[in-house]
Amino acid sequence: MQYEKSVWYEESVRKKVAIILVGCVYSFTILSSVASGGEDFLSIYWNRPIPPQNHKIKFLPYPQECGQCHKNQYKDWKESFHDKAVSPGLLGQINHKKDPDFARSCYFCHAPMAEQSEVSDKTSEVENRSYINNPSFDNKLKLSGVSCVVCHLRDGKIYGPPAKSSPPYPSPASGEGIMEGGQKPHNGFIEKGFFEKAEFCAACHQLDEGYELNDKVLVNTYREWEESIYSKNNITCQKCHMPDRQHLFRGIHDSEMVKRGISIEAASYKKGARLIIKNTGAGHFFPTYITPLVVVKGFMLDENGKAIPSSVKKAFIGRKVSLDLSKEIFDTRIPPEKSFEFDYRVNKSYNRSKLVFEVRVYPDEFYNRFYKGLLKNKDGSFNRKEIEKALKITERSGYILFKEVL
User: Fold this and answer.
1) 263 and 397 co-located in one domain
2) In terms of pTM, does the model score above 0.70?
3) Which residue from 90, 138, 218, 374 could staple onto 115, CB 3.0 to 4.6 Å apart?
4) 385 and 311 assigned to the same domain
5) Quick check: is 205 in a domain?
6) Are 361 and 398 spatial neighbours (Cβ–Cβ below 8 Å)?
């Protein structure tokens, strides 16, 4: 593959990317619309960076500490991509000393607590912003990514969803886990209904302000949901990605999750066959981001069961963009309740062969292209070892979702 020129890696483009990521500032019109118990402060709750908490709490803010009591939640989270929010791909790109603006823009969603950033604001001015070394920086907390405290700790207090009458996990609010003397862990917690609303997730999964490509924002998951039948039926993000309050956050990387979100049907007709892929279960576009790519392929088998190269036909589902984010190559994503059709007309010379339909998912296709291109650059403005690790991760993430012989 011919990779785009090195403009992506030039300083001007890195600044552009920083602006794009700073644009991840969620729309306060989304978050401030959620009221809980007469209180209207979800926008304040997600004000970032989240103010320092260490001096206000009497426990260590690390996920493994939370996991001593919340064993199931911790186990689920460890398997999730929230645990991997500060990954080799991120660590390989950021350099807080050379470009603190870029680092902070990444941390906005990937490590949003004040203690997770090496630098803090010297002044509150947006223009000509300057930074100082952060005295409360905690590298261990930074590497934990989007952990328990990112969502549940504010002003030294623990927040969570309303207690269920029969919770799947031990809950202090239900009276389970009461300590000696009748004291509840953390002195109890503050219940907020917004934990079960899609708007809570919009803080990081909606980019309303900033960069647009082909008149479309890069991250539009909440709006896609809001305009779908799922919103009207109150089927929220949590109901699919956190079923029964499990902290798994599964998505495109998980084949079983994807199979629950779409249906695939293959049917033969006189001169060929058709594959129909329908978004029957995802409350947003399939896929929602620019990072994945789904490859649909049809091909014929020879007498030995091998694919005939000249028979291969492909189609793509996704939103593919150039590495410098200057061009949208195509956008074939499937909105909720819509379909993608792939027709394969059989050449007469293959009339004794078998037709195969195959669907492969590459969850990290954009990242894979990006890391390969980055490693070709010799300027040393990135951490090569971390990017090499990241490339290996993206090379392994693809999988076959569907395969059928007609």
Assistant:
1) yes
2) yes
3) 138
4) yes
5) no
6) yes
Question: How confident is the model over 281-287, as a mean pLDDT?
Answer: 98
- Domains in the chain, number: 2
User: Containing domain of residue 191, as a range?
Assistant: 35-196
* Residue 342: inside a domain: yes
pLDDT band at residue 156, thresholds of 50, 70 and 90?
Answer: very high
Question: Hunting for tokens 């996704």 — which residue is that?
Answer: 318
Of 202, 262, 264, 260, the closest CA to residue 231 belongs to 202
- Alpha carbon distance 238, 198 (integer Å): 7
| pLDDT interval class at 37 (50, 70, 90) | very low
* Token pair of 393 as six digits: 């991760």
Q: What's the CA gap between 259 and 286, in Å, rounded?
A: 11
Same domain as 176, residue 44: yes
What are the contacts of 61-67 at 24+ separation with CB within 8 A? 61/115, 61/138, 61/141, 61/148, 61/149, 61/153, 62/140, 62/141, 62/144, 62/147, 63/144, 63/147, 63/148, 63/149, 66/147, 66/148, 66/149
Q: Is residue 249 assigned to a domain?
A: no
Q: Is residue 4 part of a domain?
A: no
Between CA 162 and CA 267 the distance in angstroms is: 47
Q: Are 112 and 25 in contact (CB under 8 A)?
A: no
pLDDT per residue as tens digits for the range 167-181:
544 554 444 444 455
Strands 131-133 and 119-121 come out as: antiparallel
Q: Are residues 40 and 188 in the same domain?
A: yes
